[in-house]
Design goal:
Layout: E1 2-3, E2 9-13, E3 16-20, E4 31-38, E5 45-48, E6 53-57, E7 62-67, E8 73-78, E9 84-90, E10 95-100, E11 104-109, E12 115-120, E13 126-131, E14 135-140, E15 144-149, E16 155-160, E17 165-171, E18 174-179, E19 183-188, E20 193-198, E21 205-208, E22 212-216, E23 220-225, E24 235-238, E25 243-248, E26 252-257, E27 261-266, E28 272-277, E29 285-290, E30 294-299, E31 302-308, H1 318-329, H2 344-354, E32 357-358, E33 368-369, H3 376-388, E34 409-411, E35 416-419
Antiparallel strand pairs: 1-2, 2-3, 3-35, 4-31, 5-6, 6-7, 7-8, 9-10, 10-11, 11-12, 13-14, 14-15, 15-16, 17-18, 18-19, 19-20, 21-22, 22-23, 23-24, 25-26, 26-27, 27-28, 29-30, 30-31, 32-33, 34-35
Helix pairs in contact: 2-3
Length: about 425
C-alpha cells in the first residue's frame, strides 16, 4: 500500500491498481462573489497557487501581485520588453516567474520586486510555464518544450514538437504537453515520449493527477488513464465552445469555457453537476483556479473570486453511520443496476439524505456533500423526478457505471476506485 496526497492511496494486485480517492461534492453550496479586478483585457494572464496573492500580467508588460482576499495591489514589477503571455507564482520560494513576447523568462522577488534570474533560449513567444521542486518547464510558439533548472539559468532538456505549444504541465517525472497539432503528448523527464493521445482540435489546457490526465480542447475535455495510458479516453466532457482551463479537486473536474461558464463535473458518473456563470455578460473564462472553499476566475473583463460556504467534514458523527448503513443495504440490485428498489419509503429516505449530506468511507476518506440549502419544495421536486426516473439517482450507489473497460468504478461499500 502506498499513500500519496491526503485522502489518496493505492495498492497493486497483479495487473490491477486499486485506488482510494477522497470525494467531496465541492463548489455546490451557496457562495458570494468578490470582484478583485475590474479591467477589460483580452490578453490578461493570471496565476494563483492557493496562497495570499495572485499574479496578473498583460500587454502593459507589468507583473502585478494582488491580494486574493481584497484585490488590493501588493507589488507592480516592470522589466519585460514585450507583452507577458505566461505567469507562474511560487509563494513557497517567494518568487514569481513570467514569460514574454521578448523571448525571455524572468524570475522576480515577491517581497521586493527585484529581478533575480533570466532563462534565455526560446525562439518564439513563451506561452506556458510550470514547475516542480527544482525544475522549470516552459512551452513556446517555437514548437519546443524546455526543461530548466529552477535555481539556476541552465537548460536540462528540450522536447521537440510539430506545432506551437499551447499548454504544459509537470507532475513527478511526467510532462503533459498540449499543442496546436490536435494531439496531447505525455513525456517522461528523461525526454522519452510515453504516449500520444489524438484530439479533435487544439489542446488549450492540460492537467495531470497521479491517476488521470485531462486535456481541454475544442468543445470537449478528455480524461485519460494515467496508469494504463490507453489511447481511448475514460470520459469525454462535452462543452459548447473551446475549453480554456481545466482543474481537478476531490474527484471533480472544474472547467472554464469560452461561453463564459464554469462547470463542475463528477468523475464517478461523468455528469455535469454544477454550472456557474463567470459574469453577467458571459465573457470567455480564460483561467480557473481551485482552492478549498474558493474559485478564482479570470475573464476578459475582470477577475472574480467565488467564496463558498464553509463546510466541516465530520467522519465520526452518528449521521455518518446511519447513512452508510442506508447505502450498504442497497437501493438497487448490484447485478441489475437499472432496477428500482421495491420499497418507496427507503427510496425516498435515500433521496432525502442525498439532498443533504452523504458520507462514504473506507478509512475516513470518502465523503460526498450535496446541496444543504434546498428548500422543502425543491426536495419534493427531487423526489418526484427520482421516482419517475430512478436513473437520475447518482450512480455512486450502483456497483459500477457503464463505461469502457479501463474506466474506474466506485465500490459503494468501501469507497474504492479501481483502475484496470
Amino acid at each position: 500500500m502506498t499513500r500519496g496526497n491526503a485522502g489518496v492511496c493505492s495498492e497493486t494486485e497483479g495487473n490491477m491498481v486499486k485506488v482510494i480517492l477522497e470525494e467531496r461534492n465541492v463548489y455546490c453550496s451557496a457562495f458570494h462573489v468578490l470582484n478583485l479586478l475590474k479591467l477589460p483585457d483580452t490578453q490578461r494572464q493570471l496565476h494563483f497557487c492557493r496562497g495570499k496573492y495572485f499574479a496578473v500580467g498583460s500587454k502593459d508588460r507589468k507583473v502585478s501581485l494582488r491580494s486574493v482576499e481584497t484585490g488590493k495591489l501588493h507589488k507592480s514589477i516592470v522589466g519585460h520588453a514585450g507583452t507577458i503571455y505566461s505567469l507562474l507564482l511560487i509563494e513557497s520560494k517567494k518568487i514569481v516567474i513570467s514569460g514574454s513576447y521578448d523571448l525571455t523568462i524572468r524570475a522576480w522577488s515577491i517581497e521586493t520586486g527585484q529581478y533575480l534570474r533570466l532563462w534565455r533560449g526560446h525562439r518564439g513567444t513563451i506561452t506556458c510555464l510550470d514547475h516542480t521542486d527544482n525544475l522549470l518547464i516552459s512551452g513556446s510558439k517555437d514548437k519546443m518544450v524546455k526543461v530548466w533548472y529552477l535555481n539556476r539559468a541552465v537548460i536540462k532538456r528540450t522536447l521537440h514538437h510539430s506545432k506551437a505549444i499551447k499548454a504544459v504541465k509537470i507532475l513527478g517525472d511526467r510532462i503533459g504537453v498540449g499543442t496546436e497539432a490536435n494531439k496531447f503528448y505525455l513525456w517522461d523527464i528523461n525526454g522519452n515520449l510515453l504516449k500520444t493521445f489524438p484530439t479533435i482540435g487544439k489542446v488549450f489546457s492540460v492537467n495531470l493527477t497521479p491517476h488521470f490526465i485531462f486535456g481541454g480542447s475544442v468543445n470537449v475535455v478528455y480524461m485519460w488513464n494515467m496508469v494504463s495510458l490507453h489511447e481511448s479516453p475514460m470520459f469525454t466532457f462535452p462543452h459548447p465552445s473551446n475549453v480554456l482551463a481545466v482543474q481537478y479537486c476531490y474527484v471533480r473536474c472544474v472547467t472554464g469555457c469560452e461561453d463564459g461558464k464554469v462547470r463542475v463535473w463528477s468523475l464517478v458518473t461523468g455528469d455535469c453537476i454544477k454550472v456557474i456563470r463567470g459574469n453577467a455578460r458571459s465573457d470567455p473564462v480564460t483561467h480557473v483556479y481551485v482552492d478549498v472553499d474558493r474559485l478564482l476566475i479570470n475573464t476578459t473583463t475582470g477577475v472574480i473570486s467565488l467564496n463558498f460556504q464553509s463546510v466541516t467534514w465530520d467522519y465520526c458523527s452518528e449521521r455518518f453511520h446511519e447513512e452508510c448503513t442506508i447505502i450498504e443495504k442497497g437501493l438497487y440490485n448490484s447485478r441489475e443496476p437499472k432496477k428500482r428498489c421495491k420499497s418507496a419509503v427507503t427510496f425516498k429516505q435515500y433521496v432525502r439524505n442525498q439532498a443533504n449530506i452523504i458520507i462514504l468511507s473506507s478509512n475516513g476518506c470518502e465523503q460526498v456533500l450535496h446541496d444543504t440549502n434546498k428548500t422543502s419544495s425543491g426536495r419534493k421536486q427531487d423526489y418526484a423526478i427520482a421516482e419517475k426516473n430512478p436513473r437520475r439517482v447518482p450512480k455512486i450507489v450502483r456497483s459500477a457505471p457503464v463505461m469502457r473497460p479501463q474506466a474506474p468504478y466506485i465500490d459503494t461499500k468501501v469507497g474504492e476506485t479501481t483502475i484496470l
